[in-house]
Specification:
The complex is a heterodimer. By secondary structure, chain A is mainly alpha-helical. Chain A is built from nine helices and no strands. Chain B is 63% helix and 7% strand. Chain B has helices spanning 2-16, 18-25, 29-48, 57-76, 107-119, and strands at 88-91, 97-100. Classes of the chains: A mainly alpha, B mainly alpha.
């Protein structure tokens, strides 16, 4: 390929990529903030990592699944990779006790929602991904494409995970009521 | 209990709205395009200079360690199966007992295992 042809196609690719990012910016932002890595990674850092991976694999996107599904899959895998990295190298930091207490009392207003998010985080990686995708409005078929499962397996996992979450939620709330 | 179930559903539905709500806090297009530019620059730097391949040495190091381990093990424990003589008594005419054992065992090994047999 001649140099000017290469540059033209590169520019075209960059334009297509940027347009795709702008179309899906809310989705990328949402996934970056959803995995509770905020304590170690800033959301912007997560987003940057996701964009790097999207660009790296942009050529492999063949359009077999929808653009949104493909982005979701790459972004989720990136977040899981970052989380595994964190698990291997946990960062210890100084805790400001007073600040933590203030945060807790602030969160107490919103704690049932936080509780649900926390329980979603505690699900296994795959079930967590499936339930998140379901909550983010993806169809069973789309989730099946992301996870290489069948639609019926996805439906079953969602049902079970939701049941599990509900039980965890009720158990925790009962515990709090007793206290 | 019903309240809890209802509350769970409320939080569940609330989580379903999270993606829509993300629209309000998403960074500006400019920030996003800058991030894309950084990613593209990183990739092109990697394209221009594919070396150093950072982790190419890992399999070699692992193989070397394995080889070294095998060597050390071999030196330290030259005979994985010690030549414990499987002495077999053989009664020879004339009242003598001859002990046969695996080749390579020392005289002391023979005596030990012979004693064992005699004690039995």
């Amino acid at each position: 390929m001649l140099k000017h042809q290469y540059i033209a196609s590169k520019n075209e690719k960059e334009r297509a990529f940027n347009a795709m990012l702008l179309r899906n910016k809310a989705l990328i932002w949402h996934i970056s903030s959803d995995y509770s890595l905020g304590k170690v990674w800033k959301i912007e850092d997560c987003m940057q990592e996701i964009i790097v991976n999207l660009w790296r694999y942009f050529d492999t996107f063949e359009g077999r699944s929808s653009e949104r599904t493909w982005i979701y899959r790459v972004a989720t895998n990136t977040m899981l990779m970052l989380r595994r990295k964190d698990d291997r190298n946990p960062i210890t930091e100084h805790i400001d006790v007073q600040k933590e207490i203030n945060n807790l009392s602030y969160e107490a207003h919103d704690d049932n929602y936080q509780l649900l998010l926390q329980f979603i985080n505690e699900l296994s990686e795959e079930n967590g991904m499936i339930i998140r995708a379901h909550l983010d409005g993806f169809s069973y078929q789309e989730i099946a494409e992301m996870t290489n499962l069948t639609s019926s397996a996805v439906a079953m996992r969602i049902l079970r995970s939701k049941q599990q979450l509900k039980e965890m939620y009720e158990k925790e709330n009962n515990k709090i009521e007793k206290i | 209990m019903n309240d809890l179930k209802n509350d769970f559903e409320i939080q569940w539905q609330r989580r379903k709205q999270a993606l829509k709500e993300a629209q309000n806090s998403v960074p500006s297009d400019e920030v996003l395009l800058n991030m894309a530019k950084t990613a593209q620059e990183q990739a092109s730097v990697a394209e221009i200079s594919p070396l150093p391949r950072r982790r190419l040495w890992i399999p070699y190091a692992a193989a070397a360690c394995l080889l070294l381990g095998v060597l050390l093990y071999g030196l330290h424990f030259p005979k994985t199966e010690p030549n414990i003589p499987v002495a077999k008594e053989k009664i020879v005419k004339g009242g003598k007992i001859v002990f046969l054992c695996n080749s390579g065992c020392s005289a002391q090994d023979v005596i030990i295992s012979a004693n064992k047999i005699v004690n039995q």
